[in-house]
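Message: A physicist's question: would you kindly supply an amino acid chain plus fold tokens?
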Amino acid sequence: MDFLILLSLCLVSWTGTWGKKDGSLAQVVIETEVGRSAKIPCAAYSPENAIQPTIHWFYEKNGKKQKILTSGTSETIHEDAELNDRVKLESDFMLVISDIRVQDERFYLCLVENTNSAPSESKLQLRVYKAPELLEMKLDDAPLQLNDKVEVGTCESKNGFPISNITWYKNGFPVNSMEDVEVTYLYTTESSGLITILSTLSMTIKQSDNEAEIYCEVSYHLPGGDYMLESKTGNLTVYYPNKKVEIFQERPEGLIKEGDTVELKCVGDGNPQPEINFYKSGFEDVRLGSGTSLIMENIRRENSGGYKCQGIDYNNFEDDLSAETEVHVHFLDQPMFSVSSPRVMNEGETLSVSCEAKGSTAPVVTWKTNGNDVSNGSILNLKQVDHDMSGNYTCIVHSPDVQDLIVSKELQIFVAGTPKVSVTSLILYVDENQQVTVSCTAIGYPAADIMWSINGSTTERRDELEVTSELTFNVTQDLIDTSIICLATNENGSNKAEIKVEQRLVSTVTSATISVTEESIKKETSRESSHGVVIVVVIVCILLLAILGAVLYFLYKKGRISCGRSGKQDITKPSEKEQIVVEMKPDSPVEESVLLPGSQEKKPPGDQEKYINLRN
């Protein structure tokens, strides 16, 4: 029986515990949500013990039983108009209620009548849940005054079931249980049975509550777990009187220099901010403007001094709302030279120039020319000047204590002398009737005048030291193998440079020559190829002969080869005393000459030399 009951309960969403009521009924709690279906098992029914059972389903209403339906062996009779269209029976007489409503939260009883046993009954409780549809918080738009408990805002949770819990938070911490906080609730039951909760937050307002973040949270239960929903966050605005004001430099960061835009700011310690007026301190204060900020553009050194702000709070006339500060504007004057600029010098002379600049702090001086440092310090020393030392020398003065406080001034130095002349090329290779452009540069003071030795069109660029002239001309036969002269002249003398004009050499090769050359190359290649083959063959033959000779020599040393000996050579090496003797018998033909051992020692029979007949 218990097994079947547990198996039936697995088919529905429920939580609960088994218990006893009046010592007889087993009670189960089943959970579901509004709009869904609920399956309620008949725990009193057992298929093994049931013989022609009749099942009656009831629910309790106002302490009385209300029959839902009766199911016999042949048909099921619905007897409750409220549930008539939303209930049905499934296997094992399980009661299924669709489209659950809040009003369906009741106790349900199942009565089983058997023909062979006494009736049995089981009881179950159905609990219905509904998540809130909306959580909305409203804070009071009007600024709050320092006071005893005042209403701060409301939080509304709509159409939930059953009653949910609402918690208020300030700066992330719950405040419901705090001493200076009061939270009230108003519950409204809608016609659908759903519940709307309106919670009101009241608290004692303090100065620290200004800009505090407030929100509310509703927590509720659904089958399967607990859930929560948060509202949007709002901020409190609290008004409290100003007790003092403070003036400070908002920009720039760090020390102030001439040309900066300076902003002074004055703020109070209350809310709202007081009305602010700015003054330049002196024998008589001069009003400069109103507002929370005073902006001074392109500030000058004469703007240094004391500045004061005065605040007015209409909620506090007792305290003095004023503050002062000092503004110090740093500066550097333009540098002054000990000599005038431009400075004209002769070659070989020496010059010493000082650069001085007054400022609010001790300055640092550096001399530069062409981007390179030439002196650290206020004195520039030039010795044995020449043309290359002409140019602009810049004195740079900066303050090491004040960022970007820099001034500079240029000193022009001209070294007088005959001009130095240079041309683009000393030799010019040309073709007849070709148009050519050449360039000539003269450096010296005063700036030189340039003249060319031939006619053509010229363009010129000049400054106080350097002149560049470009000459464009057509090459004629008369100009080839001659020189073009560039002459530069100033009041100190003249110099010249020459450009040698030469005919461009062009090598011509006839087709016949090319053909002959190609044929010669082919023949030479063929010869070289033949010679190479012959050399390879000769080298291979030499190597083969050398190998053959080595093999023959080896065999000879081993005694494997008889070099004209009449008998078989002993394979052992002969002693130094042994000699080879050729015996000639007078009564025998020449062909019967034999080889005789040089030693007369007797040898073993096996070692006796054999004689070989050399006759054919």
Summary: Residues 511-558 form the longest helix (48 residues). Helices lie at 2-9, 511-558.
